[in-house]
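Dear H.,

Thanks for agreeing to be a second pair of eyes. The structure we're designing against is below in token form, covering all 462 positions.
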């Protein structure tokens, strides 16, 4: 437990019941969605605003108190699971939409707002915040920025980094930096927001953001395709990009091992396709004219069948059909709950290398760990492959992870496309970053957090 003198000082400093040491509260904040073992924090602090965050960090900086930042605790790399002798800083109370500029299509928001909250507020103005993840109801916008989240529509709108105009952040010493810039162009010196986007809370605490919004696409059509091989789906993706890039918003791929497993879990009255196939793709088109989208999707997918790129196609005819098809792709959370213990991989690579990587890694795991189950799916449109490997002996998971990520490193892939590094992957960062790059990251960490108190042991071994 945090020393009584610190508890008293922080309660006086922060007020408003911001600090809590109740055992039930500590248990509730002891773990994120990763497989990292739960660890009780020393205390939980829930500030109401940036000024309180700054006061808290000034005190922790002075007294060398280690902090772990939490948003929605939906990460899969253990970045928000407390480590030994850490105080949780939860931003969940800082969840307000500050303002929406309908004309400029921007939104200013506190970091603890959920992604779904931001999306819903944008819709009130006929706009859209296009980042989308299956954890939208739980993940926070600050956490999305801290990990540079990607999700389902990167192919059209880019990563979280591409959707942020300005950031306010609190440094480990309590200084508030950055500006809530709302301009598309601002080359006045270093663009400091990029220090914090993707650095997983190791360099500072994101407290507010200015987000880019886009015009709402009122209509969408979702298509489920079955194919014999990934190469054919890559050709399909190329065809759709060349012939209808303006409407293509998602292109998700699911190998049979994943697809069949989630279909079994969902216990559908009937399977989507009468036959079984090697691989499947979910394709989404967005636009303003439903009839035009429907006609276009039918024409393009009809041509794809004639060209032998796909074997069978289901084109959604209603919003419910759209949701039902997306439910197959987003069933990963339920699958993970049923295959514990597991490792969740998040690997980025050129799409031309993806099938080779799947074949090689799957065979390597099968040879060494015959009881392992292997599930593959991902965002083909942006080259981000997700694997889940389930194995009944958790003490072997680290060795399995090393085997797979070593293959990724040899192929020039990134060991993290969108989930981050956290504590789970920091031992493997060397497979994707050179010694000089890691040294520079450590130098930046040491400069901005000289007392090494903020999200210690995430991303980098220190």
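And this is the sequence the design step returned. I haven't edited it by hand at all.
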């Amino acid at each position: 437990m945090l020393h009584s003198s610190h508890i008293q000082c922080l309660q006086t400093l922060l007020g408003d019941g911001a600090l809590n040491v109740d055992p039930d509260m500590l248990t509730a904040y002891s773990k994120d969605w990763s497989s990292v073992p739960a660890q009780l924090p020393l205390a939980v602090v829930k500030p109401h605003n940036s000024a309180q965050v700054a006061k808290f960090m000034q005190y922790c900086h002075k007294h060398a108190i280690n902090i772990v930042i939490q948003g929605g605790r939906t990460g899969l790399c253990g970045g928000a699971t407390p480590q030994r002798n850490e105080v949780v800083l939860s931003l969940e109370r800082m969840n307000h939409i500050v303002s929406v500029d309908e004309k400029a299509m921007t939104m200013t928001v506190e970091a603890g707002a959920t992604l779904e909250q931001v999306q819903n507020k944008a819709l009130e103005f006929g706009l859209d915040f296009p980042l989308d993840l299956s954890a939208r109801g739980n993940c926070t916008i600050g956490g999305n920025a801290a990990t540079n989240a990607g999700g389902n529509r990167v192919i059209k709108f880019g990563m979280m980094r591409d959707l942020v105009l300005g950031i306010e952040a609190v440094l480990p010493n309590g200084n508030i930096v950055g500006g809530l810039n709302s301009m598309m162009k601002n080359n006045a010196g270093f663009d400091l927001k990029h220090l914090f986007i993707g650095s997983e809370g190791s360099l500072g605490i994101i407290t507010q953001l200015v987000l880019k919004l886009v015009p709402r696409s009122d209509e969408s059509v979702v298509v489920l395709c079955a194919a014999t091989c990934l190469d054919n789906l890559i050709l399909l993706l190329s065809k759709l990009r060349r012939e209808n890039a303006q409407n293509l918003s998602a292109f998700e791929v699911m190998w049979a091992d994943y697809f069949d497993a989630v279909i079994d879990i969902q216990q559908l009255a009937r399977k989507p396709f009468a036959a079984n196939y090697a691989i499947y793709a979910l394709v989404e088109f967005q636009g303003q004219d439903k009839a035009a989208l429907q006609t276009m999707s039918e024409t393009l997918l009809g041509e794809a069948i004639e060209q032998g790129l796909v074997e069978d196609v289901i084109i959604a005819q209603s919003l419910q059909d759209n949701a039902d098809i997306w439910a197959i792709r987003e069933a990963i959370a339920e699958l993970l709950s049923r295959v514990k213990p597991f490792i969740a991989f998040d690997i980025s690579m050129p799409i031309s290398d993806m099938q080779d990587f799947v074949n090689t890694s799957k065979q390597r795991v099968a040879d060494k760990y015959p009881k392992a189950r292997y599930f593959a799916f991902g965002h083909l449109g942006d080259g981000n492959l997700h694997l889940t490997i389930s194995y009944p002996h958790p003490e072997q998971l680290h060795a399995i992870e090393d085997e797979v990520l070593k293959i990724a490193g040899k192929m020039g892939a990134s060991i993290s496309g969108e989930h981050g590094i956290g504590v789970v992957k920091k031992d493997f960062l060397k497979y994707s970053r050179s010694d000089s790059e890691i040294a520079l990251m450590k130098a930046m960490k040491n400069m901005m957090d000289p007392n090494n108190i903020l999200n210690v042991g995430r991303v980098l071994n220190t």
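Two observations from my side: Residues 290-306 form the longest helix (17 residues). The mean pLDDT is 95.

Warmly,
E.
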